[in-house]
């Protein structure tokens, strides 16, 4: 079983929102075969704590427009790694140092990548 269409829509919208706030290294993994609690992980990096907050705010605003509300949010106080759980999708916004240290990509590298919009991948490749 792969990620639902709803989860893919949320993931792509979250990735676009993050890209609009200049997030870097935006990727999404279909983890539906590995986890029963969610379908997609979206990962992105920010250069500083303020940018982490800005990305989180934009992701929440854009997903709210689709009628999605976070089930929970963690790490907001420190602003180094914020996790936003939407049930079908979990968005990880990490300060670039946390991203390198925890290397979530290594943990999920066996999972298929979710194809993201060209505007997101172009910004990530630049």
Whole-number radius of gyration? 13 Å
Contiguous uncertain segments of 5+ residues:
none
| CATH structural fold name | Beta Polymerase, domain 2
Shape: globular
CATH architecture: 2-Layer Sandwich
* Average pLDDT rating: 93
Assigned CATH superfamily = Beta Polymerase, domain 2
Distinct helical segment count = 5
| Number of beta strands | 5
Q: What portion of residues belong to β-strands? A: 15-25%
N→C terminal distance? 33 Å
Protein name: Ribosomal silencing factor RsfS
Keywords: Cytoplasm, Repressor, Translation regulation
Organism: Nocardioides marmoribigeumensis
InterPro entries: Iojap/RsfS/C7orf30, NT_sf
What would you say this structure looks like, in words?
- The protein has a single domain (5-125), classed as Beta Polymerase, domain 2, CATH 3.30.460.10.
- The mean pLDDT is 93.
- A hairpin with a 6-residue loop joins strand 3 (72-74) and strand 4 (81-85).
- The radius of gyration is 13 Å and the shape is globular.
- The chain is α+β, with helices and mostly antiparallel strands.
- Helices cover 42% and strands 23% of the residues.
- Strands 1-2-5-4-3 form a 5-stranded mixed sheet.
């Amino acid at each position: 079983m792969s990620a639902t269409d709803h989860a893919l829509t949320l993931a792509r919208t979250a990735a676009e929102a993050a890209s609009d706030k200049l997030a870097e290294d935006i990727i999404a993994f279909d983890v539906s075969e590995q986890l029963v609690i969610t379908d997609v992980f979206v990962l992105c990096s920010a250069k500083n704590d303020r940018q982490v907050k800005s990305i989180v705010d934009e992701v929440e605003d854009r997903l709210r427009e689709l009628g999605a509300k976070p089930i929970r949010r963690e790490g907001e106080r420190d602003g180094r790694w914020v996790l936003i759980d939407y049930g079908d999708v979990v968005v990880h916004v990490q300060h670039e140092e946390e991203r390198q240290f925890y290397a979530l990509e290594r943990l999920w590298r066996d999972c298929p990548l979710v194809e993201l919009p060209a505007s997101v991948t172009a910004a990530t490749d630049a």
